[in-house]
Amino acid sequence: MLTALKLARRWRSNESGLAAIEFAFVLPILLTMLLGLVELSNALGTRTALTNMASTAADLIARESATSGSDMDTVFGAMSAMMYGYSTSSATVTITSVIDGGAGKPPVVSWSCAWNASGSSASPQAKGATPTVPSGMVTQGGGDSVIWARVTYIYTSPLSAFITSPISWSNDFYLKPRRVLQIPYSTPAPSSSGAQCNS
């Protein structure tokens, strides 16, 4: 009986292997947190790149006095470079010049170019179409215009542990031309793969 009590006391006071058991309990939680942080960081990085793409696309065109297909090739090349490290297959960029339609008339599309265009929201706007732009961007009867850049992206997580389905993102950016009231577009058309223009 005495030996059994001694063995029981020794077993209760023995702590070897306790850290390994605790680590085994905590490890799945730590791995889950790590995977979640990696997925969230990648998604936020992609979203930030899209915001930067939209503002950069509008800014590069708004600096011009006139633009052409070769200018669009330069912009689309810059957009591709900005997506380095991310898949560009589902990224689309549309740059549109929206001009004053005249007194009492809504703003209209002067020209529009798109890269990787697929679907109505990414395709170039038709010339003469009346897009919806934020109020005050184009003054009626003022003869001015605005450059509208839209970037769309379908994000698919490389891990798919927490973000299991694709997420569609769209970002719009508007800038007034800096040198002229309206930036004209002239041929030739852009030579970038997947690029098309309506002018």
Descriptive labels:
199 residues, alpha+beta, two-stranded parallel ribbon, 3 helices, 36% helix
Structure description:
The chain is built from three helices and seven strands. The protein has 199 residues and is of the alpha+beta class. The chain has a five-stranded antiparallel sheet with strand order 5-4-2-3-7, covered by helices on one side. A two-stranded parallel sheet has the order 1-6. 36% of the residues lie in helices and 23% in strands. α2 packs antiparallel against α3. The chain starts with a helix and ends with a strand. The chain has one domain (12-198).
In summary, what is this structure?
The protein has 199 residues and is α+β, with helices and mostly antiparallel strands. The protein has one domain.
Query: N-to-C SSE series?
Result: HHEHEEEEEE
- Evaluate the radius of gyration: 28 Å
What's the oligomerization state? single chain
% residues in beta strands: 15-25%
- Estimate percent helicity: 25-40%
Distance between the termini: 99 Å
Estimate nothing, just give the exact number of structural domains: 1
The structure class reads alpha+beta
* C-alpha geometry: elongated
Largest sheet entry: 5 strands, antiparallel
Low-confidence stretches: none
User: How many beta-strand elements?
Assistant: 7
* Widest sheet: strand ordering: 5-4-2-3-7
Overall mean pLDDT score? 88
The number of helical segments is 3
Topology, pairings included?
Layout: H1 2-13, H2 18-62, E1 67-68, H3 69-82, E2 91-99, E3 108-115, E4 145-155, E5 167-175, E6 185-186, E7 195-198
Parallel strand pairs: 1-6
Antiparallel strand pairs: 2-3, 2-4, 3-7, 4-5
Helix pairs in contact: 2-3
